[in-house]
């Protein structure tokens, strides 16, 4: 540990300063941040669990508070040593029963962060041979997180949230993304027309996943390329359908009439990646 | 409505026989069936919601009880008229506040069924050019249901549950499967060695989804074919890895180290379907 460098673990929280009262104002404040609306209004995100917290720190997210149960003090100490972004954070240690009621996980791992909310990108990044996933009003946080994870795994340039897509930094979405929400740029542009216009100006082919579309096999995917995944119940809007170059349907010869939104996104994203990476495809 | 044919709606439940007391023994009994362990021990499955119930009836599932709120009586009546399998069911009408506490959905649709638990197939069906998805200890009910939905959409011959995979007729799994759990044969053979042996005897190529495997692109998929999806945290067992002909990894050039189990299943199932259906692939 870099003593004297303002490490919050040393400066703020001597061994014996464990917080044991539910009425402690800091405990009460941090506990309110578990509610996304409150956290949002403060420009903060509450993250719980070893893996997700480490992913956030590795990705350069800046914690305002590091909190742990008494048992996890050593891990918090290790993070302060390892990650420069921890230098300006405040550290608080809570007694086990208090920590257990901080978040909503059934078996809490005894460690959490309150980070400054990542800024959404307002312009769409480009790096050549780009692939984008556009989510138009994807409502289920599990789907949203899973799709962000898939886009990250397949090295997409960005995920673009449009319409009234759900919050990627909500608890369920973050858990489903397995940290990918901190790896891949997330752009938020609510107006789908604006998204399509910006991408078209940059020569990006626009493909919509649409049950009314032509078979995926008949579409010629060209790079750069973006695919739109619509709302789970309603699909893409007509506005979006009209602005896209292709509307494609994944062939479904069985009885199910549709795929789960994140399943459809996985298949389409995989197909796009295969084209980009020029992998020999039987 | 076929009056006089023993339709339970007529024989059991005149208009004025709405149940209004929480202490009514039938209400109390049906309410216990919402708990999967209790329902399983009775050989029953509790299903809630218009879409899922209709899917079950269309697929020939036999209801023991049809229950509705007062407002949904007409729909229950329609089902009794439309589906022969309803003829031997008992119908009960519950007052709104009672129905609201029957299941666990936040906005109940006022209709539910208690069906006889579908028998798991004990032998693996075959119809030629077969594709199978084998789930080895898939634990998350959302993943399990989503994978069943994908296998159904891509017209797989069966889904095979092995290891200690979760219950496909639990509430979350059924909801994620969107009725596909009633469309596609579900085989349960806990011993993965037995699954592999039975399939190999029938000349089925066995492919495991495995992060330690070779790239999916280097594998030659031949029909009939089965792909194994392992546990979300641990992947496939070594026993399974040793019994499979190929271990394949979906290429992931990005930062995420793995895909969600149902995302991986979607990509692999899609690739297998494309081979089966000889679709021209770029």
Give a description of the structure.
By secondary structure, the first copy, chain A, is an alpha/beta fold. Chain A folds into 2 domains: 8-116, Ribosomal protein L30/S12 (60s Ribosomal Protein L30, Chain: A); 131-276, SPOUT methyltransferase, trefoil knot domain (Alpha/beta knot, 3-Layer(aba) Sandwich). Chain A has 11 helices and 10 strands. The first copy, chain A, has helices spanning 8-12, 25-32, 36-41, 50-58, 73-82, 96-100, 141-153, 171-177, 192-201, 238-243, 261-276, and strands spanning 44-48, 63-69, 90-94, 111-116, 131-136, 158-162, 186-188, 205-215, 225-229, 246-249. In chain A, strands 7-6-5-9-8-10 form a 6-stranded parallel beta sheet, sandwiched between helices. In chain A, strands 1-4-2-3 form a 4-stranded mixed beta sheet, sandwiched between helices. In chain A, helix 7 (141-153) runs parallel beside helix 8 and helix 7 packs parallel to helix 11 (261-276). The N and C termini of chain A lie far apart (54 Å). Residues 1-15 of chain A have low confidence and may be disordered.
